[in-house]
């Protein structure tokens, strides 16, 4: 019973971060993270910070000196003020904890942040961008909430989108495969207002029809094409000074994509689905940048072993 409760608590805390990430109070996008052809910057300091923490802090048992974090983020055009503001906000939200040594302040991960970063790691490296293992089932969530509960309705929709659901029709959302509806609904306290079913499509309804009706595959595909336009070039992100900067922006761009992707069944997507090529591009560049980026980070980062 204890293990079940632990898993449930982890999902509650991950949900709280999802609400945090959608709150819209992150500082302005990084000035140095512009896309190709002068596109609008895609990454905000907090999103970049999560990538940094996931690569260079998660699983290491260390804290990082704030001054060296500022040095790293200067490479991608994030100001000292924005970095300090982001760190302070993440402390307030129980994502980071301060460790003082003399006049220096080091930032380490809380257990909350570790769980969230591990979830991001799984989405990037294990879940993948293409769902090749779909068993033909769908999870259906039906709900009806009055206008007096508009906020709860918004939170439920946001949570369903995060978990890969799409609106099939008014008040009915679907997602491919077996989804943990309890973990989605319990933090919101809406169990009595929601119906959850698992089902398969039966004629005349086809799975392809459900994909077409519930998900904007054109918009999803456009996100991957924009990623490829930015990164699948001879010289990606030319404004970045080095591979450490490119690594952080690459990982941030990719995680933002896979977070928004409902992981639709590969068999019901076009054969030229751009996520396949985009994932290959990401993995290739991530491998390419890792050696130099890791060496640069080792030179710049001032770390404190935590017990």
Task: Please specify the SSE layout and strand pairing.
Blueprint: H1 2-21, H2 45-56, E1 62-65, H3 66-74, H4 80-92, E2 96-101, E3 104-109, H5 111-127, E4 138-143, H6 150-162, E5 166-169, E6 172-176, H7 181-185, E7 194-199, H8 207-214, H9 217-231, H10 243-260, H11 274-300, E8 303-305
Helix pairs in contact: 1-5, 2-5, 2-10, 3-4, 9-10, 9-11, 10-11
Task: Please sum up the structure shown.
51% of the residues lie in helices and 13% in strands.
Report what the structure shows.
- The protein has two domains: 1-133 and 216-307, no CATH class; 138-200, 2-Layer Sandwich (Alpha-Beta Plaits), CATH 3.30.70.2360.
- Helix content is 51%, strand content 13%.
- Helix 9 crosses helix 11 (274-300).
- A hairpin with a 2-residue loop joins strand 5 and strand 6 (172-176).
- The model is unreliable at 1-25 and 31-42 (pLDDT under 50).
- It contains eleven helices and eight strands.
- The strands form two sheets. Strands 2-3-1-8 form a four-stranded antiparallel beta sheet. A four-stranded antiparallel beta sheet has the order 5-6-4-7.
- It starts with a helix and ends with a strand.
- It is α+β, with helices and mostly antiparallel strands and 307 residues long.
Keywords for this entry:
13% strand; single chain; alpha+beta; four-stranded antiparallel sheet; 2 domains; 307 residues; Alpha-Beta Plaits
């Amino acid at each position: 019973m204890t293990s079940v409760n632990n898993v449930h608590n982890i999902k509650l805390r991950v949900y709280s971060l999802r609400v945090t990430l959608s709150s819209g109070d992150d500082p302005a996008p990084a000035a140095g993270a512009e896309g190709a052809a002068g596109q609008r910057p895609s990454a905000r300091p907090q999103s970049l910070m999560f990538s940094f923490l996931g690569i260079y802090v998660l699983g290491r048992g260390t804290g990082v000196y704030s001054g060296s974090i500022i040095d790293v983020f200067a490479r991608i055009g994030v100001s000292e003020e924005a970095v300090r503001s982001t760190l302070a906000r993440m402390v307030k939200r129980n994502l980071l904890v301060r460790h003082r040594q003399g006049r220096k302040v080091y930032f380490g991960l809380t257990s909350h942040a570790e769980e969230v970063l591990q979830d991001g790691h799984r989405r990037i490296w294990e879940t993948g961008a293409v769902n090749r293992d779909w068993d033909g089932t769908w999870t259906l969530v039906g709900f009806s909430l009055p206008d007096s509960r508009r906020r709860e309705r918004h939170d439920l929709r946001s949570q369903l989108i995060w978990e890969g659901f799409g609106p099939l029709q008014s008040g009915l959302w679907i997602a491919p495969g077996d989804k943990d509806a309890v973990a989605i609904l319990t933090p919101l306290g809406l169990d009595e207002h929601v119906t959850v079913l698992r089902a398969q499509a039966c004629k005349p309804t086809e799975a392809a029809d459900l994909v077409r009706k519930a998900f904007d595959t054109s918009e999803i595909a456009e996100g991957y094409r924009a990623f490829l336009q930015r990164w699948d070039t001879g010289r990606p992100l030319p404004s970045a000074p080095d591979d450490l900067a490119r690594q952080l922006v690459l990982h941030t761009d990719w995680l933002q994509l896979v977070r928004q992707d409902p992981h639709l069944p590969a068999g019901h997507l076009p054969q030229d689905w751009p996520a396949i090529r985009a994932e290959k591009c990401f993995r290739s560049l991530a491998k390419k940048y890792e050696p130099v980026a890791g060496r640069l980070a080792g030179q710049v980062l001032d770390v404190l072993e935590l017990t």
